[in-house]
Amino acid sequence: MRVWSLASGSSGNAYLLEADGCQVLVECGLPLPTLEAALGALGSSPGRLSAALVTHDHGDHLRGARPLADAYSVPIYASAGTLAHPSLEGCARLRELRVGEARRIGELEVRPFRVPHDGAEPLAFRIEAQGASVAIVTDLGYVPESLLPCLQDLDLLILEANHDPEMLWAGPYHPRLKRRIAGDLGHLSNTAAGQTVAACGDRAPRQLWLAHLSTVNNSPARAVEQVSAVLRARGLGWLKPRALPRAGKPFGWASRPAAQQLPLF
Ligand SMILES: [Zn+2]
Ligand SMILES: [Zn+2]
C-alpha cells in the first residue's frame, strides 16, 4: 500500500491511497482543478479513482466532493450525516459508511470510526490492504478511549496535531473560536496527539504523520517538538513524527518497496 498527502490543513485536505492499482482518495477538500493538478503530478487523474472517502461535512474536507462525483462519476463514501450536506443533494454517486461495518473498495478495507467533532456525523478511517494498515484521524476534540484499539499496530498513523494551546490562547482568534478549537468537539493539540500515540505503548504506529496543523497557532517544528517530547518521555523516542505540509509537493509513504507505478516523493 502507498499513501500520499496532497494537502493537509484548514484550507483543504486530500490523501491518495493506492493498493494493487486501486486508488482511493480520502478527503475532498481541494477544488477540482487543484486536485487534478495534484493527482497529475503523481501520474494519476481523478478518473482513476475507485472512490472518494470523506470524514465529515466541513468545507476543507468536502468542498470538492460534488464536482468530483459530477465530472468523473467517482462514488463518494461518507456517513449519513455527511451525505446529507446540501452540496450533495441529488447526487447519484453517494455511498453510506456505517460505524461498525467494514467496507471493501477494491483492495482496500475501510473501517469507519466515530470521532468527537462539531460536524454532522464525523468519522475517522482505518484502512488495510496488502497486509498494511493506515489510519487517518483528524478533526477531533479529544481521543476517546474507545478509539485507541483502532490506532494500535498501524504501519502509518496520520494524526491531527492542530495547535499549541499556549499559542492558541495568546493568539489573535476571537475568544469564541478559541473555545471551539480547544473544546471537546474541536481540534487535537500537539500534546494530546503525543499522548494518544503514547497510550498505544508497544503497539504504537511504526510511522507517524502530524496533520491539519494550524498556521496561526502552530508550526511544523513546534508540532514535531511537542509530540516528540511526549513520545520520548514515554519510551517511544524511536518514533520520529513528521509534520505534513499544507500543500505543495505530495508527501509519500510505501508499506514496502514495490514496483512503482507512480513516483514516490
Ligand atoms: Zn478540517
Ligand atoms: Zn472539521
Could you describe the 3D structure shown?
By secondary structure, the chain is of the alpha/beta class. The chain has a single domain, classed as Metallo-beta-lactamase, Chain A (4-Layer Sandwich). It has helices spanning 32-41, 59-62, 65-72, 80-83, 165-170, 175-182, 190-198, 220-233; strands at residues 2-7, 14-19, 22-26, 49-53, 76-78, 94-96, 103-105, 108-114, 123-129, 132-137, 156-160, 207-211, 242-243, 251-254. The strands form 2 sheets. A 7-stranded mixed beta sheet has the order 6-5-4-3-2-1-14. The chain binds zinc ion (2 copies). One zinc ion (ZN) binds at residues 56, 58, 117, 119, 139.
Could you tell me the strand content as a percent range?
25-35%
General form: globular
**Which spans have pLDDT < 50 for at least 5 consecutive residues?**
none
How many strands, what sense, and barrel or not for the largest sheet?
A: 7 strands, mixed
How many beta-strand segments?
14
Spatial separation of the terminal alpha carbons: 15 Å
Which value, in Å, is the CA radius of gyration? 17 Å
Number of helices: 8
- Text of the CATH class: Alpha Beta
Going by helix content, strand content and strand pairing, the class is alpha/beta
What is the CATH topology? Metallo-beta-lactamase, Chain A
Query: What small molecules does this complex bind?
Result: zinc ion
Q: CATH H-level name... which superfamily?
A: Ribonuclease Z/Hydroxyacylglutathione hydrolase-like
Please indicate the count of domains.
1
Mean pLDDT: 95
